[in-house]
């Protein structure tokens, strides 16, 4: 799933709130359809919708926590907060996975046609939310480009995945309803739910792999270390001495501190301008980085 959590602008917060409201309504509709229908796919859809809603809630709560805090509290903590939230979603995903697979296996062993008014509720909801999620994906993608926000980029991917899921469930329920005259159609529902379960499983494994690794602070990748050295080489005539380079990765955040010595005849204004140029270049080269230029 989807959970890089840097500080975003007000527009980003509005986008997340809109997703929260839309997801809450979708969750209620899916729950109503589940209660009023006999369908393993609708059960899988409810679990999937619940997971997505929890993910959006955690993103929203984390953004609020960051906005209420001061800058220095979160330089090294936001990465941990991000990945702990992802692990929580991953655990919930495995619980839902077990429920879906149990229902699907039961449906394969005791097959029957889908039924209930909830089928029509789900069909209407899938069609509606396919459009809503597509619009939210496009909006988040636009915000990700304008704000350079990893959160909005992740949200765009989430909404696009949800729109594809809406289309898949809509197709599955439509085929199960339209092909009821064929005996083999009773297997469409449990097989489709197993496909949804497989997508949840792959997402959960990815979350655990990435989040457990990112919970540990580690050195930068070689390509980023080379980018730092390349930028220093580009500005070698701006400073007199390279004293130290300290860097670390914490979650999705990269922190770089460079200690430079300058010639005594350089003015404070010149030193500040050179340091700002180097900082800007490095933060552009290394996505999600925060660079500090210290003067020795």
CATH topology of the largest domain: Alpha-lytic protease prodomain-like
In CATH, the architecture of the largest domain is Up-down Bundle
Number of beta strands: 3
**Strand-pairing-aware structural class:** mainly alpha
Q: Characterize the biggest β-sheet.
A: 3 strands, mixed
Top-tier CATH class of the largest domain: Mainly Alpha
Main β-sheet, spatial strand arrangement: 1-2-3
Beta-strand content bin: 5-15%
State the separation between the terminal residues, measured CA to CA: 43 Å
Q: Show unreliable segments.
A: 1-12, 70-76
| Helix share, percent | over 70%
Question: What's the overall average pLDDT, rounded?
Answer: 77
Radius of gyration: 24 Å
Tally of individual domains: 2
Note the overall shape.
elongated
Order of helix and strand elements from N to C terminus: HHHHHHHHEEHE
């Amino acid at each position: 799933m989807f959970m890089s959590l840097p500080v975003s602008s007000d527009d980003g917060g509005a986008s997340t709130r809109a997703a929260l409201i839309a997801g809450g309504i979708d969750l209620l509709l899916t729950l109503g359809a589940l209660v009023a229908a006999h369908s393993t796919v609708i059960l899988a859809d409810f679990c999937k919708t619940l997971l997505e809603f929890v993910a959006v809630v955690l993103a929203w709560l984390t953004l609020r926590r960051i906005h209420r805090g001061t800058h220095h509290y979160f330089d090294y903590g936001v990465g941990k907060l991000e990945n702990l939230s992802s692990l929580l979603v991953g655990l919930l995903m495995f619980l839902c996975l077990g429920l879906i697979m149990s229902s699907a296996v039961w449906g394969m062993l005791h097959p029957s046609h889908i039924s209930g008014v909830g089928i029509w509720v789900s069909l209407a909801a899938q069609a509606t939310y396919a459009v809503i999620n597509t619009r939210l994906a496009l909006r988040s993608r636009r915000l990700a480009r304008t704000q350079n926000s990893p959160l909005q980029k992740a949200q765009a991917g989430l909404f696009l995945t949800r729109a594809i899921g809406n289309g898949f469930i809509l197709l599955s329920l439509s085929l199960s309803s339209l092909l009821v005259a064929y005996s083999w159609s009773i297997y469409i529902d449990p097989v489709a739910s197993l496909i949804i379960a497989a997508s949840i499983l792959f997402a959960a494994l990815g979350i655990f792999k990435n989040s457990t690794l990112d919970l540990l602070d580690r050195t930068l990748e070689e390509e980023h270390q080379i980018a730092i050295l390349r930028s220093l080489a580009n500005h070698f005539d701006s400073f007199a001495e390279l004293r130290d380079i300290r860097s670390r990765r914490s979650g999705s955040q990269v922190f770089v501190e460079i200690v430079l010595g300058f010639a005594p005849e350089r003015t404070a204004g010149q030193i500040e301008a050179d340091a700002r140029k180097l900082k800007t270049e490095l933060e552009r080269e290394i996505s999600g980085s925060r660079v500090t230029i210290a003067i020795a």
